[in-house]
Design brief:
The complex is a heterodimer of chains A (222) and B (237). Chain A has 222 residues and is mainly α. Chain A is built from 9 helices and no strands. In chain B, helix 3 packs across helix 4, helix 3 packs parallel to helix 5 (154-168) and helix 4 (131-138) crosses helix 5 (154-168). Classes of the chains: A mainly alpha (222), B alpha/beta (237). Chain A binds chain B through residues 3, 6-7, 10, 14, 17-18, 21-22, 79-82, 84-91, 215, 219, 222, and chain B through 70, 72-74, 93, 96-97, 99-101, 103, 105-109, 111-112, 116, 120-121, 123-126, 164, 168.
Chain lengths: 222, 237
């Protein structure tokens, strides 16, 4: 393993170990996400066809909105003192970005996977479209993880974590749209290749942007 | 908590680049945060093998100067170099692993044990993991190695910080409020660290509000007043 990937792996492992011990991210966001998914059927009532039609969109909206919380909480794992230590250890900022984004993506994937069966039970009895969601889950988790980590690094430069949702939510709209359209496309028999490609391209662009901007953003945050 | 016999911290560090004659060389350096000048027209030269005490009232700029020397801040005026690398150029990124900073706030991860914290540091820095147990024993934390940092007292966390610096063996050691929260036994660690880095041909800058405690460790004092070096005679007194 090269130095960069070894360092990225260490950052991800440390973040996941901390989360495993505290549950600060998932134990807070999963119940809220589940509650949001349950509130919508209560508001709509027992209109099964309508619920089935809006189900994928509702699921992805909840993933997006509460996924932001996952990335925001995750980005607070290193305080200023820890950041100084990491910097003086010679940690490559790109490795920190990759490791943090990787850990966030894994937590988001767990978040998505826990909520998916609940959404299936609440919204759709026909699982045809939902099976394809399984293919989209990792793409969205990686994209949101990258976007949240990048947004947190930008926000650190202006010392305001409140900026993170303001950056993440608009930029993740294409992901929400693509993920919903994949599910809907399968349901009605339309092609989904273009939407899958959009997700892949967004993930790649975010990864490149995050790696290239890691050093300047780290220095700007001081 | 007993300390193990201090030893080979003064041995050679892991870095192959030679330490320059002037470990710190600041010329008319200033640092402003926004419009506020924090450091002004500061000249400071610290030679290899030297330890300097940095004193001054609260708000005089001591911590900012340490962060500048750690390359965590760049000067807004003047020129400066640390370990031969300009503080205003990307050269400074390369010397960062050769700098050890112990600040006010411990940089340990609260949910990791002391041993996990140091093992993480070792892996990031590419240092063999076997050294972790040794340095924990030497700072008197051998029996507490499986305790999470969050469950450690402030003094134990400071010892953990010392263990981290022992692990990385820096060429430039920067200690902020060196004796804060330490009992007399742990305070000996400060002396071992400073002496060790000097023996390796590096340099140390030690900030303290108790000049009397660090006087035996340092060759001279530098006093900051409102972001500038005070008259040398003032510091001597």
């Amino acid at each position: 393993m090269t130095g960069l990937w070894r360092q990225a792996w260490e950052i991800a492992r440390k973040d996941l170990r901390t989360e495993f011990r505290t549950g600060e991210v998932l134990l807070i966001t999963v119940p809220f996400g589940a509650a949001a998914l349950m509130l919508i059927p209560l508001a709509i009532g027992v209109d099964a066809p309508l619920l089935e039609r809006v189900g994928p969109g509702m699921y992805w909206s909840v993933v997006l909105l509460f996924g932001v919380l996952v990335t925001v909480r995750q980005s607070a794992a290193d305080g200023p003192a820890q950041m100084d230590v990491l910097t003086l250890l010679g940690l490559d900022p790109a490795a920190r970005f990759a490791g943090r984004a990787g850990a966030s993506a894994l937590l988001l994937l767990v978040f998505e996977a826990v909520l998916a069966p609940l959404a299936l039970a609440l919204y759709g009895s026909d699982p045809r479209g939902w099976w394809w969601v399984l293919a989209v889950l990792p793409l969205v988790a990686v994209g949101l993880g990258l976007l949240g980590t990048l947004a947190a690094a930008i926000a650190a430069g202006v010392a305001s974590t409140t900026l993170v949702p303001l950056i993440v939510v608009p930029l993740s709209v294409p992901m929400l749209l693509a993920a919903s359209q994949v599910t809907e496309g399968i349901r009605v028999g339309a092609t989904i290749f273009g939407w899958l490609l959009l997700l892949v391209v967004m993930d790649l662009l975010l990864a490149v942007a995050g790696v290239l901007s890691a050093r300047p953003l780290q220095e700007a945050a001081r | 908590m007993p300390l193990a016999t201090p030893a080979p911290f003064g041995g050679p560090g892991p870095y192959t680049r030679p330490v320059p004659a002037a470990v710190i060389d600041l010329r008319s350096v200033g640092v402003r945060l926004g419009d506020t000048p924090i450091l002004r027209d500061l000249d400071l030269r610290v030679e290899a093998g030297e330890a300097v005490g940095l004193i001054g009232a609260n708000g005089s700029g001591k911590t900012t100067l340490l962060r500048l020397l750690a390359t965590l801040l760049a000067p807004t005026d003047g020129e400066g170099a640390v370990l031969g690398a300009s503080l205003s150029s990307p050269e400074r990124f390369a010397v960062r692993p050769r700098i050890g900073l112990i600040g006010h706030t411990p940089g340990l991860y609260p949910q990791l044990t002391l041993e996990e914290n140091l093992a993480f540091v070792a892996r990031i820095a590419g240092i063999p993991g076997e050294a972790v147990g040794e340095v924990l024993d030497r700072v008197g934390l051998g029996l507490a190695r499986h305790r999470r940092a969050a469950a450690c007292s402030h003094g134990m966390q400071r010892r953990g910080e010392f263990a981290r610096v022992m692990l990385t063996r820096p060429d430039l050691l920067l200690l902020d409020e060196a004796h804060a929260g330490l009992d007399s036994q742990a305070a000996d660690l400060v002396a071992h660290l400073v002496e060790g880095v000097r023996r390796r041909g590096g340099a140390a800058v030690v900030v303290s509000h108790e000049p009397g405690r660090i006087a035996p460790l340092v060759g001279r004092f530098v006093e900051l007043q409102a972001g500038a070096v005070a008259d040398p005679g003032t510091a001597a007194s």
